[in-house]
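SAMPLE LOG
Freezer: B-3
Tube label: C17
Construct: single chain, 825 aa
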Amino acid sequence: MDLQRERVVPISLSDEMRDSYLDYSMSVIVSRALPDVRDGLKPVHRRVLYGMQDLGLSYNRPYKKSARIVGEVLGKYHPHGDSAVYDTLVRMVQEFSLRYPLVDGQGNFGSIDGDSAAAMRYTEARMSRIAGEMLRDLEKETVSFVPNFDDTLEEPEVMPSVLPNLLVNGSSGIAVGMSTNIPPHNLSEVVDGLIALINDPEIEVDELMAYISGPDFPTGAIIYGADGIREAYATGRGKITMRARATTEAVKGNRENIVITELPYQVNKATLIERIAHLVRTDKITGISDIRDESDKEGIRIVIELKRDEIPQVVLNQLYKHTQMQETFGVIGIALVQGIPRVLTLKEMLQHFVDFRHEIVVRRTEYDLRKARERAHILEGYKIALENLDEVIKIIRGSDSPAEAKERLMKRFDFSDLQAQAILDMRLQRLTSMEIKKVMEEYKDILQLIETLEGILSSRVQRMEIIKEELLSLKEQYGDERRTEIIRDAEEFTIEDMIAEEDMVVTITHSGYIKRSAVSTFRRQRRGGRGLQGAGTKEDDFVEHLFIASTHDYILFFTTQGKVHWLKVHEIPQGGRAARGRAIVNILDLRNNDTVAAFLVVKEFDENRYVTMCTREGLVKKTELSAYANPQRGGIYAIDIREGDRLIEVGITEGNQDIVLGTRKGKSIRFHERDVRPTGRRTQGVKGVTLSGKEDEVVGMVIVKREGTVLAVSDNGYGKRTDINSYPVQNRGGQGVITLKTSDKIGHMIALKEVVDNDDLMIITKKGVLIRQSVNSISTIGRNTQGVKLIRLDEDDKIAAVTRLMEEEEEEEEEEEEEDTTETS
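STRUCTURE (predicted):
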């Protein structure tokens, strides 16, 4: 028999890995990363406090070096490295990390700028006063003790905390396969919630929120919206939006500063300032001229200087969007319940703490009762001995040894071993009449205490009253006002909140480049002026479309193939007059060589209004505006375009207006929109005008909205205004009447617009020259005329697009600036 052979046990590799990993993960979950629902502490925090108690470091005792504390904890209870223990100690000191710090530190324990603490040999610490509430009654066998890592000492399994630490200080930790993130709360509110739960065990979360309004972060700031709070309290998971507290201060020079005084929880101030500076350098935020950190021991003060005439709220919303001035706290209410991780609601957390405090009160009362009975037993012996004092003395003097005296006393007076020993240990001074009286009074008091303690153990109501009294005392001693403000009815801000609302000139070139520029970029000129460069173009490119829209407006882009795409004006890249812009294909998802044909500026999608469209071949169609409210990324169909045709113009109608179509040959037709019945999106429409030959096509559509004039413009730079009443209402589908006499000199009609005297006209040529002039400088004449010169064109240049500015869109110029404008005949 070979006794030396190795014993090999075959084990599946996957089984071994699974078992080992499960053992490891459970060790991390239970022994390192997750807090206990009862005292809200992880093992390392509990061991630090217990180690400090071993060293006698209560709040009213001298500080000791942090290294001494770390060594105590490391050597006795927590063998995981000194940095793990010291980092825990540091965080328990930091007022910006814990709502109610459990350790009182002396020295450099880090800052909100992310500065690390000084080495442990330089700092000193002791327990804070409130930490004493965590360890209260620990000596009364209120909690179970377990062996330490080497079975040489014992440590408490949990602290008998009067403080509801899990909620008031919160907790965060990453375990294996799970994590916890519980926000801190206000002690006064949590106590009120606990008492409300004790008074009404059936209370609901909504009712508890009348007492506990939400998290209360040590750094203050603002919670923006209460929906996330309620979700977190009701389910154990939720997202809470936090915002920095910022105000504005007016300074000289028509400027304003944004002053930040409170930051969201766990935001690094130095990192935040660096982020803001980076956004300014990269032109992501353009309204900031300077940023200063004026924080001191009195508190945080970050001053952001704005450029002249900047709107503070716009810049502030940009900061909320792009920096940690707005952060989300993801609540995950996981804690250990009897050693098992569970997701807990607010009510469950409170209930577990109440149950725990009830257990502590019971165990403490049982301990006090046992000690009281032991003392009463001794006092009963004293009483008998003092009543028979002469005989007791005689027995003691007549005995040869203490053991004999003890035995004789027990036999004579039926004393227990403890009573006989206590009598032998009694000092002679206790035999005075005064001491005898004290013994009798103490015996009477101890009997009364025993009765009281027995009453507590027999009555749950009394025990609950004790819990409430202790909580109210805690609130009175340590409660304070909320630091974090809660804005309950706040709506989530949109990107428009970060964009100042202003009118923009949007231009699109023939090659498909788009940009937006402020209307004020272009100053008003008189009729016949030379114009300004409006858009930089390549030699083979020219500006084809121009229109005015607010930065907050929606723009519906209608393509030649009959699709519609949805965009916001502020999403269009901004550029100066000479800027080329950005390729529209990089902004819109255009496919199959589709190009943009028409644009519609919309603020709201109304079911009572219609999108009216016309095509090059004279078809007209209208569909409810609400049908275009939700285009997809690839666009949706707006109109069914037949082969050879294309969409040219789109407008909004109210259902009772007239429509005027103008053709390249200078004709136009006016008919009522009732002649065009509403249809769905993917339809072709009906005939609006009959064209004059193959070379003719529709060039413009006017939706008659007011008593005004119609402006007709030719591609050679001529234009005229005609009273709208000069256009007779006809039946849809006819050839119409003459609008502009076309010829080789005048050219073909390029645009048809409805205008009034208060409008401004903006004209842009194919070479990118732009001129802005008042409409009232153009004469109102009859339909059958050729018009007047609007702009002096360079050789081989033609008008590409025309649009108008209404009175409220204009930026008035000073008279002297208008006088300086160059005039040409």
